[in-house]
Amino acid sequence: MLILASGVWPSLPLYAACLTNSDTVIFAQASYVSRQPPVWQIDGKNPYAANNAFNDIAVNYRNDCTLVEDKLDVDFSLLGLAYYPYKSPGAFEKDDHRLRALIDKLRLSYTPTESLRLDVGKLRPKGGAFYLKSPASLLSNYSAGFKATRIHSPDMKPLYTDAFWGAVLAQDTLAYSLSLTAAPRLTQPGPRYESSGNWNALARSNASDRYLLTYTDYRFGDSTPSVSLMTGDKKSVAVAQTLNVTPQFILNTELAYHFQQQWRHLDENSARDVEHYRFPDSLYSAKDDDGVELALGMQYTTDRFCQFGLEYYFQSEGYSSAQWDKQTDLIKFLNQRTNYAPLDRAFDAYKYLMASEVYNASSQGNLLGKHYLNAYGSYLMDDQSSVQPFAVMNLQDKSATVGLNINKPLNPRLELYGGLYTAFGKSDSEFALFGETLGTYLGFKYHL
Q: Where does the record locate the signal sequence feature (predicted)?
């Protein structure tokens, strides 16, 4: 009674609103993947199933609730993922479990004044202006998805990356926005020989100390500049600029300077040791080498809300052609069979480690080369259906991934989607490193 009288617990009208604000969304999908043999071999065999089909299902429950009117709110999202393969996945595709339950978001928001807000809990960082990779988005976590398959609806893309446990203190006014984010270390990094989806959730989100200060200014009319400072285990500074040339045409620029490498790279000395039959504990590391990221982009929106975009991305710490060749040469060296069982097992173990390191660098949102071009579009039809093509190319090795997604709403609750994608290039190129791939999928999204 004292709690209710104090106003800490929501009143009956607010409690009723909490019940009606919930939303449960079910995703169900069937997909088929055809993959050419990659450069890798495990026990002399292809580590991927050449052709396979999958059934995926995901359930996302979301709710936001006012506990104290205009003062205290809670917003949370729970996610369940499961899949079933028609054939047993290959050695590089196997997950520890085919069913996962995740806390996608759990945010408690306190608003002491109209412009000041404190968020605590499991939070999602704000995304950047770029679809491919935003250098100014300095808080990046690992994917919680499966290795063999995923749901391809665009709505699911952000849900696969784990949110972080921490706090955000933000002041938003008409003139500027200022925020301080704290994402403290709560555990140690996950095992490097396993993919991030098999780590525990804290290892994906809170394995390092990160503190971010971001300032955005809205007083320059059509130009919106921002600056971000990251400190903690890694230190970075980033600037971003959005310029509305016209209400329909936008230019985006982001630049980041890092004082350490942002992801783990193959150590050439360790690779040389392996080739001379000396066996180090690890092959990859992140060094205290500074680096630069740059992204340039433009986006045009038509009167009918169709969008077209083009982006260029550069990172100085990406593998050069010679460094990338060193990695693929090591894979080929480890593929040789010596007919001495302990040595063959050691070689295969190193390939598992290398594949996990490459996968985990990508699952954190990183690209592995230096220069990329990304083109995308979204065509909106009269019936609210949309067609979304995209193409990403590594400008160094000319490998690429191209896809097309189609969404068709049937009614306010039910939406169908489907599409196809392909990744192609030379067998030792980035997008074909795990085999040239052709995939297609069909699914639905349903609001209960």
A: 1-16
